[in-house]
């Protein structure tokens, strides 16, 4: 059965890729679906933290979903990859995105479409018999590594319908 929707027609093919461990710094926040956009407000703080230390980003910024309960609360981290570990301070914490197999897909379009893109990615993985590295917890669905990687700089491309976002969800090994 195919889940090819108009949204999926605009993105690349689902892939299973191997990712290496990636150090990063980020700020974790708890939000609801109605306040989720506030995560983006924390991203400039992470960039400012790195700039103050003379550290260049080693890739595109991302949101890492730690815990998801769409009805109550989500725990999301606004992060930026770095080439080598950096010590955190205050709200900015150091971390490492784990190595392993990930299902990935790239979407070109408005970020509001990512809920549908995510749904289609989860369905596709289920059809393939793939198992994600996550578990139920009292707070919600806890993920080892579930990423939205924002590859488009809004300062360079203000048209949100042209933004490129990669989804990368870690699989069990």
Brief synopsis:
By secondary structure, this protein is an alpha+beta fold.
What does this structure look like?
The protein contains two helices and ten strands. With 173 residues, the chain is α+β, with helices and mostly antiparallel strands. The chain has two domains: 1-21 and 98-173, no CATH class; 22-97, Multidrug-efflux Transporter 1 Regulator Bmrr, Chain A. Strands 1, 2, 3, 4, 5, 6, 7, 8, 9 and 10 form a ten-stranded antiparallel β-sheet that branches. A hairpin with a 2-residue loop joins strand 7 (134-137) and strand 8. The longest helix is centred in the first third of the chain and has 15 residues, at 38-52. Mean pLDDT is 92; it is low at 1-11.
Outline the secondary-structure elements.
Elements: E1 15-19, E2 22-31, H1 38-52, E3 62-68, E4 74-81, E5 93-97, E6 100-108, H2 114-128, E7 134-137, E8 140-143, E9 146-150, E10 164-170
Antiparallel strand pairs: 1-6, 2-4, 2-5, 3-4, 3-8, 3-9, 6-10, 7-8, 9-10
Mean pLDDT: 92
The separation of the N and C termini measures 26 Å
Largest sheet: 10 strands, antiparallel
- CA radius of gyration is 16 Å
Structural class by sheet pairing and helices: alpha+beta
Q: Give the ordered list of helices and strands.
A: EEHEEEEHEEEE
| Tally of helical segments | 2
Which overall shape is indicated by the principal axes computed on the Cα atoms? Answer: globular
Number of strands: 10
- What is the number of independent domains? 2
Low-confidence stretches: 1-11
Strand content is 35-45%
What share of the residues lie within helices? 10-25%
